[in-house]
Design goal:
Strand order of the largest sheet: 5-14-11-6-9-7-8
Strand content: 15-25%
Length: 466
C-alpha cells in the first residue's frame, strides 16, 4: 500500500485568496514541506486505484460566503458612478452612469475628457408651438376673418396706392381723395352710409366665434330713450366692442330691439381712403363732440334722437397702455366728458364691462421699459393716439405674432342710469360728479356680480385709476 500524507487541520490551513492562489498550484511548499518528495499512488486499475481527498474549503451554507479563519466575507453590491456636467446656462452636457463591480474597477487616466453642448438641444424645448396641419376648416375661417379685420387698414392703404400707380385711375382717384379729406359724413349724424346687410353678414359670426365672444344684458332698454354706452376696458384693439356694437354677430338687435347703436372711433380713421367707406358702411362714426351731439339729437323715432345710442370706449388710447393680461385697470377718475355729454343731450348712461378684453394680447410694460412709455405718451399728446408695443400669437403658431389669443370675451351691459337733461345746455359740476359716482358704482356691481363666472383669474381686482 502506498503511504498518504495526512492533511493539515482546518485551523492550520492558510486562507486561499483566490482559486488561482499559489497555495493551490504548489501544495508541496506549504508549512515546511518543501523537501518532501511527491507521493505516488499505486493501484491495479483506474477504477479501484486510491484517490487523494479533494483539497477544498467548506462553505457557509446559510450565507454562501467563504469562511476564512472563522469570519464570513459577504459579496459586495455593484457600485455605480454618475457623471453630470453642465454648461454656464445650466444646460446638461453629460449624464452618464457607469456601473461596475469589484472585478471591474474604473480605470483612472491622466487625461480628462469633457464634451461640448449637444447640438439642437434648445430646439427640442422651443417656446414656439406651431399649429397642427389637421385644423378644422371652420377654425381656419375664424382665423382668416380676425386676420382680415386686424389688417384692414394696411390692406385698404395698399390697394389705394396700387391703384394710384395706374394712370388710368387717376381721373377717379384725384377727386375721390379730395372728397375723403373734406367730407363731413363721419360727424353729420345722419348715418346715411350705414348698411344693415353688411353688419349682419354671416362672416362676422366667424369673427366673434374665434375668441369666442358673447353679449349679455342686465336689464331691458326702452326704445323711447337715447343712450350712451361706456365700454370698458379699451384693451389693445377693442375686439369686443367691434363684435358687440359694430356688427350683428352677437345679436344686439335681438337683445335691445328698437335701438340703433353706433360705435365711435377716431376721426383720423375716416381720412384713410377706402377704409373710410368700409367703416361708414358698418355704421361707425367719429368720436368728436359734434358727431356725438348730432347722432343723439337727429333721427330716431321722433327726429330728436330717441331710440338711438352711441358706444364710446371711455378709457381711450391712455387705457390701452395699461392693457395687461390678468388686470382690470380703468382710466375713469378724471374722464367726465361723456357724463357732461349725457346731461346736455338727455341720454341715459349704460356701463359696459368686457371680461377678457385685456387678456387678448401681451405688451411691453411701462415699469420694465420707462423710456418706451415716455415716447408713447409723447406720441399720444401730439397725435391723439398711441401705438402699444404688443404681441400675441401668429397665423400658424401659438406664441409669436399680432393675432389675438383665443380667450373668451364676455361683454356685460349694465343697468341704465337715468340722466336729467340740462336746460339751456348749462351743466352743473355737482350733478356731473353725482352721475359719475353712480356710473362707477354700477361698473363695480357688474364686476362683483359676474367676476366669479367670467373672470378666469380670481385674483384680479377692479381698479379705477386717473
Amino acid at each position: 500500500m502506498a503511504t498518504q500524507i495526512p492533511l493539515l487541520p482546518e485551523k492550520h490551513q492558510p486562507p486561499p485568496s483566490s482559486p488561482t492562489d499559489a497555495a493551490y498550484r504548489e501544495p508541496d511548499k506549504i508549512h515546511g514541506l518543501e523537501n518532501t518528495p511527491p507521493t505516488q499512488f499505486v493501484g491495479k486499475g483506474e477504477a479501484d486505484s486510491q484517490r487523494s481527498p479533494p483539497f477544498s474549503q467548506p462553505r457557509h451554507r446559510k450565507s454562501g460566503s467563504l469562511r476564512v479563519n472563522g469570519a464570513s466575507k459577504q459579496p459586495k453590491e455593484p457600485q455605480s458612478i454618475v457623471e453630470d456636467l453642465r454648461d454656464g446656462d445650466g444646460e446638461q452636457l453629460i449624464n452618464k452612469k457607469l456601473r461596475f463591480d469589484d472585478k471591474q474597477k474604473p480605470q483612472r487616466t491622466q487625461t480628462e475628457l469633457v464634451s461640448g453642448r449637444r447640438a439642437g438641444a434648445k430646439w427640442e424645448r422651443s417656446h414656439v408651438h406651431f399649429a397642427p396641419i389637421s385644423v378644422p376648416f371652420q377654425r381656419r375661417l375664424q382665423t382668416f376673418m380676425v386676420l382680415a379685420h386686424t389688417l384692414c387698414i394696411p390692406l385698404f392703404l395698399t390697394t389705394f396706392f396700387f391703384l394710384c400707380s395706374i394712370p388710368l385711375f387717376w381721373p377717379i382717384l384725384f377727386p375721390y381723395t379730395i372728397y375723403v379729406l373734406l367730407s363731413s359724413a363721419p360727424s353729420s349724424g345722419t348715418l346715411s352710409h350705414r348698411s344693415p346687410l353688411l353688419r349682419s353678414l354671416p362672416l362676422w359670426s366667424l369673427f366673434a366665434s374665434y375668441f369666442p365672444a358673447r353679449l349679455h344684458r342686465s336689464a331691458r332698454l326702452e326704445p323711447t330713450r337715447k343712450y350712451i354706452f361706456g365700454y370698458h376696458p379699451h384693451g389693445i384693439i377693442s375686439h369686443g366692442a367691434f363684435a358687440a356694437f359694430g356688427t350683428e354677430a352677437l345679436g344686439f338687435s335681438q337683445l335691445f330691439p328698437g335701438i340703433t347703436n353706433t360705435l365711435l372711433t377716431l376721426d383720423t380713421n375716416f381720412r384713410v381712403p377706402l377704409y373710410r367707406d368700409y367703416a361708414l358702411a358698418l355704421g361707425l362714426a367719429s368720436v368728436s363732440r359734434e358727431s356725438c351731439e348730432n347722432i343723439l339729437s337727429k333721427g330716431g323715432r321722433n327726429g330728436e334722437g330717441m331710440g338711438r345710442a352711441i358706444t364710446i370706449v371711455v378709457g381711450g388710447a391712455r387705457e390701452s397702455l395699461d392693457a395687461q393680461p390678468q388686470t382690470m385697470n380703468l382710466v375713469l377718475k378724471r374722464r367726465k366728458g361723456f357724463v357732461k355729454l349725457a346731461i346736455r343731450t338727455g341720454a341715459d348712461l349704460v356701463p359696459v364691462l368686457a371680461f377678457g378684453e385685456n387678456d387678448l394680447y401681451d405688451q411691453v410694460t411701462s415699469a420694465s421699459h420707462p423710456f418706451v412709455h415716455k415716447v408713447q405718451m409723447a406720441v399720444k399728446k401730439c397725435m391723439g393716439f398711441t401705438v402699444p408695443l404688443f404681441h400675441a400669437r401668429g397665423v400658424f403658431n401659438y406664441d409669436v405674432g399680432l393675432m389675438p389669443y383665443r380667450k373668451p370675451l364676455n361683454v356685460v351691459v349694465g343697468r341704465p342710469i337715468k340722466v336729467v337733461q340740462a336746460k339751456d345746455g348749462k351743466v352743473d359740476d355737482g350733478y356731473v360728479d353725482e352721475i359719475h359716482g353712480m356710473y362707477v358704482r354700477e361698473l363695480e356691481r357688474i364686476w362683483d356680480e359676474w367676476r366669479e363666472l367670467f373672470e378666469v383669474d380670481r385674483r384680479v381686482q377692479l381698479r379705477i385709476v386717473e
